[in-house]
Amino acid sequence: HYGTRIRVVSFTMPPPARPPPPAMAVPPTYSSQPTQAADSLPAYSATVPPSQTQSQAVVSVGQPMAAPVAFGVTVLPKEAELVNSAMTTTLPELQQRLNTAFRKHVALQFDPNAILGPCTTGEKRYYIANALLKPDGILNAFVKQIEKACYDPSVQADMAARVSAILVMASDQPAISLTPAGTMHYALQVNLKTFAPSKTALKAFLETHFFAEERRLMGVLLRVTVPTLAQSLSQALKHTVAVQLDVTPILSMAKEPKDRLEIARLLATDIGLTRQARKAGEGLEAMFNKALGRSAEGKDMQDEVQSQVCLQPLAHALIKHAASDPNNAVLSALTTVWVEAVSDGSPRLEWTLPSGHPATGFHSPQQPGQLALKYIIVPSRGKQGVLTMDAAVAQLELVTQAQERCLINGFLASALLGLQQCLTGHASHPVQTEVDWTTVFPSDVEAVKRLGRAQTLADSNGKHSTGTVTQALNEIANEAGARQAIGRISKFVMCNTSDATIKPNVSFNSGMMVYTVKLDKGLSGVLDTFQMKAQLRTCFGLATPADEKGVSGALKSFGAGMDRLGDKMTRSFGGWGKK
């Protein structure tokens, strides 16, 4: 018995009156214009004012143990040692941490006599006391959750205004509640297997009363993450780009109070299996640190708030497009990225004027000087209601054409020039080399097909388009009559067709060689080196060498056939992914 020399032979403690379940607190609102990112979130002072010294740290903890017997149950010596040690070290330290978190003195009331009294054996008393008071025990975990909640300044201010004391008490059921007078009850039922409120119950309490995690996530998102992403976009696009996110109306779309937190997580951090994997990894790391006796470094709570599934994929997609085409006209006009939430439909991107009206005339003299990108999300669909990076890249490409332009510019500067040099060298006179772009990118071509055509034409430095022509010319150049035939070429033209009746082919007439391809078919729509040599020999009237006939020729074409098969499979899977 702690704090008195009087032996009590019987003890009854009526359970406290339980307040009715609290209604959901009034949802907070957030500024739609985030301020510039600070270097770090506010740090809490480690000092306590003179009126809040450690001598006041613990209320109702009693005095050191005087008699090792309580309520007819023998108190084990190790329990007395544990509790007396906690009275002088552990509990004052927990009180100090609570003072720091609340930025004021909030009395931690812990009476071991009342808490341990209902225990029926000495071993049970020691078990409960040890579970509560050990350095990594239940009370330490409880204080950690309070500290985490108070990480956000608005939550800290709210809790400091509404909580005046914390009472650890015995009750008929483990629970946590807040009285109108401001006392937070942390109730234990020591004769149950799970005798203390679970971590999940504590989080739910803090969310119901203070929107603790939501406010923390939104606070870091708006003060740190959004400005950081805006800065990254501005650096990549080489001009100022604003990111506007008004989270208040988005959170208000929640149909149930519990859905607000899920929407907040969708906006601010990772969700689903990715979140579970991260949490599991953190748990394993903590377990190994404990097993190895390492002091676990506290993770910066900003690290988990990167908007991993909402804003970050779009930002990375924009940065990728800017790297592909640094002088892209559409990206150069982009000044604002803003997020809008809808209740149904699919996530998508819409290009608008800064006023919000639809924009047109991209890549033309009529293109507006300033553009905004509206990112429409569907919070009710969870992860399916936001764009992955691949989906964002694909939607951006429809307007920016950045990847297409990157491929074509590289193709013109290297692959097509290399073919011209090859033709000129074998023909011993200049040969005009060009691509009929009106057939590759006609005005009526679907936007989704443009990038596929550019990839077939220009991927791997034109390896599968002009590259096969160059290689075939080099291989047949020394065959009898080949140089004279090549010398008749004055112009080379590559053109595209969508005619289902036409196969890829090479034709030669009046000094002009025409290579017709079907770019929508991928590698199946162009000739491999073996097929190109056969076509050139037919055009020039050259004989086919014996080592390229029959089985030998089939073996030489086998590698190209495997490339075509792989390309077909890739396109099939890519098509499924976009449906």
Brief sketch in words of this structure:
This protein has 579 residues and is α/β, with parallel strands linked by helices.
If you average the pLDDT, what whole number results?
Answer: 83
Q: Describe the oligomeric state of these chains in a short phrase.
A: single chain
Query: What percent strand?
Result: 5-15%
Approximately how much helix is present in the residues?
40-55%
Query: What topology, given as strand order, has the largest sheet?
Result: 1-4-5-7-6
Overall 3D geometry? elongated
Overall SS class? alpha/beta
Number of strands: 15
End-to-end CA span: 71 Å
What is the makeup of the main sheet? 5 strands, mixed
Could you name the ranges where pLDDT drops below 50 across 5 or more consecutive residues?
A: 1-22, 34-71, 575-579
Q: Using only CA atoms, what is the Rg? A: 36 Å
Secondary structure tally, helices: 21
